[in-house]
Amino acid sequence: MTLKNGNSYRESLKELNPEVFYLGKKIDDRLGYPSFLPHINSAALTYELANMPEYEELLTATSHLTGKKINRFTHIHQSTDDLVKKVKALRLLGQKTGACFQRCVGWDALNATYTVTYEIDKKNGTNYHKKFKEYLLYVQENDLMIAGAMTDPKGDRSLKPSQQKDPDLFLHVVEKNDKGIIVRGAKAHQTGIINSHELLAMPTLAMGEEDKDYALAFAIPVDTKGIIHIFGRQTNDTRRLEEGTMDKGNYKYGIVGGEALTIFNDVFVPWERVFMCGEWEWTGLFVERFASYHRQNYGGCKTGVSDVIIGSAVAAAEYNGVASASHIKDKIAEMVNMTETLYSCSIACSDQGHETDSGAYIVNPLLANVTKLNVTRYIYEICRLCHDIAGGLVATLPSEADLNNPQLKYLIEKYLKGVDNIPTENRMRIFRLIENMTGGTALVESMHGAGSPQAQKIMILKQANLKMKKKLAEDLAGIEKEK
Amino acid sequence: MTLKNGNSYRESLKELNPEVFYLGKKIDDRLGYPSFLPHINSAALTYELANMPEYEELLTATSHLTGKKINRFTHIHQSTDDLVKKVKALRLLGQKTGACFQRCVGWDALNATYTVTYEIDKKNGTNYHKKFKEYLLYVQENDLMIAGAMTDPKGDRSLKPSQQKDPDLFLHVVEKNDKGIIVRGAKAHQTGIINSHELLAMPTLAMGEEDKDYALAFAIPVDTKGIIHIFGRQTNDTRRLEEGTMDKGNYKYGIVGGEALTIFNDVFVPWERVFMCGEWEWTGLFVERFASYHRQNYGGCKTGVSDVIIGSAVAAAEYNGVASASHIKDKIAEMVNMTETLYSCSIACSDQGHETDSGAYIVNPLLANVTKLNVTRYIYEICRLCHDIAGGLVATLPSEADLNNPQLKYLIEKYLKGVDNIPTENRMRIFRLIENMTGGTALVESMHGAGSPQAQKIMILKQANLKMKKKLAEDLAGIEKEK
Amino acid sequence: MTLKNGNSYRESLKELNPEVFYLGKKIDDRLGYPSFLPHINSAALTYELANMPEYEELLTATSHLTGKKINRFTHIHQSTDDLVKKVKALRLLGQKTGACFQRCVGWDALNATYTVTYEIDKKNGTNYHKKFKEYLLYVQENDLMIAGAMTDPKGDRSLKPSQQKDPDLFLHVVEKNDKGIIVRGAKAHQTGIINSHELLAMPTLAMGEEDKDYALAFAIPVDTKGIIHIFGRQTNDTRRLEEGTMDKGNYKYGIVGGEALTIFNDVFVPWERVFMCGEWEWTGLFVERFASYHRQNYGGCKTGVSDVIIGSAVAAAEYNGVASASHIKDKIAEMVNMTETLYSCSIACSDQGHETDSGAYIVNPLLANVTKLNVTRYIYEICRLCHDIAGGLVATLPSEADLNNPQLKYLIEKYLKGVDNIPTENRMRIFRLIENMTGGTALVESMHGAGSPQAQKIMILKQANLKMKKKLAEDLAGIEKEK
Amino acid sequence: MTLKNGNSYRESLKELNPEVFYLGKKIDDRLGYPSFLPHINSAALTYELANMPEYEELLTATSHLTGKKINRFTHIHQSTDDLVKKVKALRLLGQKTGACFQRCVGWDALNATYTVTYEIDKKNGTNYHKKFKEYLLYVQENDLMIAGAMTDPKGDRSLKPSQQKDPDLFLHVVEKNDKGIIVRGAKAHQTGIINSHELLAMPTLAMGEEDKDYALAFAIPVDTKGIIHIFGRQTNDTRRLEEGTMDKGNYKYGIVGGEALTIFNDVFVPWERVFMCGEWEWTGLFVERFASYHRQNYGGCKTGVSDVIIGSAVAAAEYNGVASASHIKDKIAEMVNMTETLYSCSIACSDQGHETDSGAYIVNPLLANVTKLNVTRYIYEICRLCHDIAGGLVATLPSEADLNNPQLKYLIEKYLKGVDNIPTENRMRIFRLIENMTGGTALVESMHGAGSPQAQKIMILKQANLKMKKKLAEDLAGIEKEK
Lengths: 483, 483, 483, 483
What we know:
Four copies of one chain form a homotetramer. By secondary structure, chain A is α+β, with helices and mostly antiparallel strands. Chain A folds into two domains: 6-285, Butyryl-CoA Dehydrogenase, subunit A, domain 2; 295-473, Butyryl-CoA Dehydrogenase, subunit A, domain 3. The first copy, chain A, has 17 helices and 14 strands. In chain A, the strands form four sheets. A six-stranded mixed beta sheet of chain A has the order 2-1-10-11-7-6, with no helix packed on it. Chain A has a four-stranded mixed beta sheet with strand order 5-8-9-12. In chain A, strand 1 (19-22) and strand 2 form a beta hairpin. In chain A, helix 5 (103-124) runs antiparallel to helix 6, helix 8 runs antiparallel to helix 9 (326-351) and helix 10 (365-390) runs antiparallel to helix 14. Chains in contact: A-B, A-C, A-D, B-C, B-D, C-D. At the A-C interface, strand 7, strand 10, strand 11, helix 10 and helix 11 of A face strand 7, strand 10, strand 11, helix 10 and helix 11 of C. Chains A, B, C, D: Pfam families: HpaB (PF03241), HpaB_N (PF11794). Chains A, B, C, D: Residues 6-276 form the HpaB/PvcC/4-BUDH N-terminal domain.
């Protein structure tokens, strides 16, 4: 059976025992730990929806390796239609969770590695692609969740990997032997890694020959010996440890994706799981491929999340009695316009995708970078407009515990009442949802997830064909061509 | 032969003799008149490129009526792929002309009328669609240029057609007889009409029963008796009457589309060319269809024009010796990002199009409106950044006549020299191109062409499904559904 | 002695015993409670700096009532220079605290009440101003901190006070007797009230005669019988209850101002502290005066806070090794530009202030509203750029407890190291400061403090003199004046 | 008599006979030439208003040299109040002309030269300041209009003056003798120079020792032998040569300032008019002083022009029948907000000005640069919103000649009628005013006048005191100071 469901996903995680730290302590029961549950719920939904007939088209696909139905999150894109469906699947899950569901990073890592290993082998006669296809088959057959491990800590950002004072600030090979390789270093911002099955490591930037020990791609289980995960703090994180549901905002799902700093203390990787080792000439392409796939996503998942934020603004306006005010409607129209613009960018980079040598399809890289660059701006503005519409109570609301205090309950219900037909509790819940979905970590994730804005600008300039545009202008201005 | 070329297009226009006024005078030789030539050149290019093998895929199509190869500008869209090709054809022509080539208005009118007449007939048992298909055949076989006639003068905009003090401020039927109808009124902003073969009139807004005399669609030649065209002024228009090419900027093409105020002084339309007459219930749909098709375009043609503007900024920066300055590159990246965002919106509304009852395909209306709303903002910002990059000479440059004055030539060439390897004249030509492409009429056209921003916002809100979004938020906030 | 210092301020608070609830519990030791301390520290700094010679000019003033040196936060502005100094004092305190120091609300309430009571008395022959001056003297002599109590809960915002189903949704008089009045209702978003001495209540909007019971201004101690304060939650609030300092970000001060929902359960106010009771005709002016004073502030305090945010971005860039990247410098220039624009608006509305009938000076209301409207946009953008510069660790950083865990300390210090000469802990501290100063509650406060943006737009239109501007245009266009 | 009026200004210009070229021809009767008249009218208004009692306070000042009443445009600022009055005078003139009135460049040149020569002399023991005061006296006594000559052509902008292939691309000394110096080169964008009395040349950028021949400041009459002025083209410039008034838009005044390329063919300057010659160390300060004064202006004159644009939008909305639409009011509020923000920046940089060593007052340079940087953005947005409100007729309106054609007059008046009580001609006039005030040259002038945006950003960063801000952040984050 290639499709897991929510339960079998959770069950399968029990078989892994990664070393996870959070708030200074080692967490042994990560599946029962309240800080992690919302993140696990989000990821689990990628399994659950795949089993529901109404979402089958978007959430499953037919494996090009086996012809079997697989969860789309393990699929290698076979057409631009697959790329469009990816965006729609992500928007759907964004709408259902209002959160990051974490599974796209590994998906993009699978597709990037698939295409690049094919090209390396074709050029170099290596057998990375064959090994990777075997790995992919294993992933598809077991419906595994993969953590795509891209970003190294980077240390002093003005220096290359081999120039860093501490050579471990980028993940690198420290030993090779008959059976495999030993790696040391770390990967930061590892989305969903504590509830993933495997991690798939990739190079983080284009490298030169001097950095060839850092030119690495491989896959291993997340609980491989020598790996430590330090789970990062998030805005309002400890509300997950409080009683009740209201003050958590989006109490069931994770808002952002549960990121960890993953440290590799001399970790062994067998050769059959090594997909690049030393081929520094291909690191640039690797990063571009992964980044293009990953930047495509942000007009999918984030527009789903934006739909929730727009919906919360609509609800707040209604509860406050101002839904028909023209300035409110105008602001909602602006929120919708930005959301659909982001969605359009993702759809367009998919529609304009093309086949790679390996047969897998890749998005249009120019438009994928445009997608992400816009996300780094629009999401902030969407959240700003949501604050504008909702009002100041988002920042000063009493706690759920206050509402539950018998001495205060009547007073809060009386004085925080909005329009007559809406219970005060509902109004409070919407304000809390807004507080938790529109600030702090969630904003930063829209900024830096899939790479920082400057990385997108560099790619945009690289892809823009300015020479052709200059010639268009010179021709129309009547300027004689330079001989 | 269904494909005209540039020459046969111009020849065919000679057979028409519309009554055209400009700058206070009747213009008899409109094909030789220097103020009109650039506009005619732009339109002619839609014919010329269709005959070039490298553009055949984008500029021609296969008629669904006859199976013959036709100019794409007369085609009824048969798939989302046709819609995507439309966008690409428009961008190509925008790049080649740096201007409006006028022919999309009629194209969109053909498609809108095709789909709506089908639905009217299906509901009412009328025969508009049959008549329209005959007309379409005539257009395709003769490769005609159609002026889509949508916008009425509207008078006091707070009043409906029948409420206006002067009933003629919207085009309406004043008489019906056995042979046809007599119409009176006007259409404003008629793009390309003086060099079109036919006009296809449509209703300008959703109407109620009291306005049924205004619920009108029909087609007639642009030189039908009783029609007067008053050609509007454009920014720097009389430079077209000057000698030389430099000060015209884009001297060969029209920058914007050559718009006229077209007045109908009791004009006869035979019944076989009447496609709607009194069916007020369908006016809303008619406008929506046309507007959706037409708003799609602006991420095509305007991105082509933007490519030229970006190219002129790149050229100016190089000529000034600042091409490698980081702030210049950053601004160019922003210009590219905005251009590709607009393009993405057009591609996405095409990719997400759907079939109508008639079999013709229509774009996604939400995303088409998003496209146009963004155009009303981004084009201004693109032009602003171009000014920033180019420098102040755009506003203070001596004239071409000064450069040709023997006493001044040496001085101008000496003192307006930029980098060493670029002739001063080239630098001046780029500045003039920028001056003429980035100000005045060209900006206003990006604002109001295909409808004003507020019209787009209304459609965006209408299409946004806010109720669904609100429910998403309430579900995630833990709010019990209202019973 | 009219000047308190930090200690005497804290001591004086002990003499008050307000009923305060937080997180569902009654808090008895509010001065020792870790959630409240940072807010108290911020307010205390307004007392401390007034005793330091280098800040004397900005933080103290000469009472126009007594000629004595007083804390400027109790001063009635006697000149435009006083208004300019207000802005500078606020910026200074914003820089020193990176937070809201709460005391301006009461200050603005004092000035607004001073000017309006004078005008009421002049018109109506009442003695509100005389009573108010006595109260003011008491405030100045004892250097009291006043909570300005403006915003009522408002219920259904489409309804006026007397139209609400529950008449208590706006604060109102329920009884009058020889000694005073009894009031019922609530005030929301009460900044700094739990560590203030007195509250000064004012009407929240312009009212008609039917709402005259709501036309109220008065002052009472914050622990008056019948008053309950429910302290609102803030983003990351419970980090204040954790050990350590790092994860609190701005650990010493409060980020925002410690807001409470203050409920008046039939509270008695003696006549000598009633400054308006029933004079509905003056409510509009009252709100305008207070709002103008209060909107002026946001280009003072928030620019001080912005200075800290800019400084944190500069530090982050240096620690990351990217301080000299041109895109980083460009973003910092944009942050500075926005900050100084906001400051300019505050300075300008002060410079262009004018004397009121009472002799007190009021800011230019048009420019004060412009100030605040810009704040609702720029602060978000400043925070966005700070996120951009700082990088993704702002959202995924391990906790201080992790750093203190001996097993992790070495690993975190190793892998989160930036440039060589900066300890990892410092880098983490800056990221935490950024996380806590740029998200959630802090943003919302910039949006809605001193009134929501739409309130500012309405005032801007009202003050804009559009008729004069229209005439300028008509004159230049050669349009004959209408007779 | 130190105050000229409009007539005596025009008369005095007749005594000068500068060599002026325009559109390829030498213009001998520059005072009667229709292309120049509107510019002369704008400048003349600076003389006329100074004689009107209601503007006396703003348009005149008391000379600190003589104690006489002088035109403020020749005044050396003696206080921050003078600086504030400068801004108000500029806004007033912007409102009255809707145009550039040209005289501020020379005014700023006078003030900059006054302050810098004082400091050079103090350091070097030269006598520039004494000579300059004599010159200033002459200017004040004769109420002269001075063209401030700052911007050199610059050639390849990546090269310094002495690195250019052609050494004349920056104005420089080619010979010195007993009587004076001979200079060669050019100044670009010379605002108002053909209707000025004198030009006052200044260095255009900070120079090193190798460029000391370019470190020059001097004053001479604009018709000095060897000087040629080539008057630049402007958008819609030749409409000034057409009959009628409507199509000119702002028919009486010049929209922008009438800029010329002024060439110095070995021009003699007597020593008594040389105010800097070789003191390269002072060029940076010179440019900063002039730029600060000049950037201050743009929140004065441009806000006056914006008032006219806002007024034209208000008029257009009323004429169209949409004045009460909420989206129209919202856009007008935005236009007002931007306009008043720019004004605030100018007021603030004035209020926060300070005394220089010479006794003259200078604006706050940080805030002056902020002013101008905002202008380069807001004016475009103000124009964009004006286009949005006015509607498409701005781009397609028939000509005044059409309206005067008897065959068309009735039709145009009928079909371009808006609301009932406004003559069609008035509506057309407003649209034409908008077309001419909001596009092309006028926009570019807001971008590059007083220096390009990047120049402002560099100054903003230089003035921002980032080190202090960084320390604020580090202190609040609990970071130990570096020892």
